[in-house]
Amino acid sequence: MEKRGGGHWGERTKLVHAGRDPSEQFGFVNTPIYRGSTVLYPSYDALVSKDSRYTYATKGTPTTEALEKAWTDISGAAGTALAPSGLSAIALAMMSVVKAGDHVLVTDSVYRPTREFCAEHLTRFGIETTYYDPLIGAGIADLIRDNTSVVWTEAPGSQTMEMQDIPAIAEAAHARGAVVAMDNTWATPLFFPPHAMGVDLAIEAGTKYLSGGSDLLMGLVSASERCWKQLRRTYELYSSCPGPEDVFLCLRGIRTMKLRLHEHEKQALEMARWLEARPEVARVMHPALESDPGHTIWKRDFKGASGLFSIELKPASKQAVAAMLDGLELFGMGFSWGGFESLVTPFNCASYRTVTEFAPAGPCLRFHVGLEDLDDLKADLDAGFTRLRATI
Ligand SMILES: Cc1ncc(COP(=O)(O)O)c(C=O)c1O
Which atom, in ligand 1's list, is nearest to the CA of 336? Predict the structure, then answer.
């Protein structure tokens, strides 16, 4: 999105204006929801040559194009493909680059369903996955083989929030011709500009902060010039399209995303500091905390932190954790995150991490801090900790 006289608009301006042109929609501010499958052609010749701006709804509508354009702009990408969920965006990105006989490198801290996709789908094409320590940095060079087509990253890591040195990994991967993919859902391009940092394919589960309301599923893959054509073609071949209402809601979400993210950041960081000082808590996993092992990389590469982080409790029984969580009034228990409401889920990655050891002494919890009054959230957790202590 360029200024008329040249140069670029600021990020907030882009968020408000990207992907929409009121002059093309009778002056209405928002791109309308185009529902449809069939596109009619004005003539035999136009149909035979497919000479039309839109050809069939799976290939794009004004609504889907608006979200693709906006995300491309915001991400600093060459193009964006949509998918009906975050996980389907992961699958799309992966399938756009791999071929039978390839090798892929995946961070051990990856979102667990990505791991299942590699184990149960990629193996069917003879594609081998090697997991690596998320803290490996430039050391990834030692694991890259001649047939390594993708180095998959995610920062911070799923559940345990390890920070990855993406520029160092990208440099090593590119030196050997491998593509760098990143699940950037946590930071979004607003807090981590993936393509400027060397990422070729960036995945965003729009289900989280684009929605902001826990009311839809969406996936987006933005691509650098190198990967754009093959990503777009793979998208067309799978024809796995999101519904127009969900696309519309994501466009609406984008306009206020920065404000929401800053609020989640502020609330979560304050909550993380409060939890760090609690006697029941052994450690807080949040890269924006000075005490976090990933803090230096976060400070160097990231412009902010979102609302998701984890803690390890001091040793406590299952019953004690259940008593703490079951009685919470404001924190919901459920998967996903990124909505306006606060959430908490217990987790334990010990059984499926394969390269790094995850052996916490106590139970672990992941929080998403929503937009409620922070004092109310603290009071809810404070009462939870009282139940925890009473049940040990
Ligand atoms: C980091 C990350 N990536 C991807 C996804 C998948 O998104 P979706 O739930 O839309 O499939 C999730 C969902 O929790 C996630 O946490």
Answer: 14
Ligand 1 atom with least separation from CA of 205:
7
CA-based diameter of the chain, in Å? 78
Measured between alpha carbons, how far is 345 from 115 in angstroms, rounded to an integer?
20
Give nearest CA residue, ligand 1 atom 7: 86
Residue nearest to atom 5 of ligand 1 (CA): 86
| CATH number, span 11-252 | 3.40.640.10
CATH architecture, domain 254-391: Alpha-Beta Complex (3.90)
Question: CB atoms < 10 A from the CB of 211, how many?
Answer: 23
Burial class (CB in 10 A: 0-12, 13-18, 19+), 101: exposed
Q: Where are the alpha helices (DSSP H) in 37-158?
A: 44-49, 62-75, 86-97, 112-120
Q: Which atom of ligand 1 is nearest to the CA of 158?
A: 1
* Ligand 1 geometric centre to CA of 110 (Å): 11
CA 343 / ligand 1 centre spacing (Å): 15
User: What are the residue ranges spanned by the domains of the chain?
Assistant: 11-252, 254-391
The pLDDT tens digits along the chain (392 residues) read 778 888 889 999 999 999 999 999 999 999 999 999 999 999 999 999 988 999 999 999 999 999 999 999 999 999 999 999 999 999 999 999 999 999 999 999 999 999 999 999 999 999 999 999 999 999 999 999 999 999 999 999 999 999 999 999 999 999 999 999 999 999 999 999 999 999 999 999 999 999 999 999 999 999 999 999 999 999 999 999 999 999 999 999 999 999 999 999 999 999 999 999 999 999 999 999 999 999 999 999 999 999 999 999 999 999 999 999 999 999 999 999 999 999 999 999 999 999 999 999 999 999 999 999 999 999 999 999 999 999 96
Residue list, ligand 1 pocket, CB within 6 Å: 85-87, 111, 158, 183, 185, 205, 207, 217, 219, 336
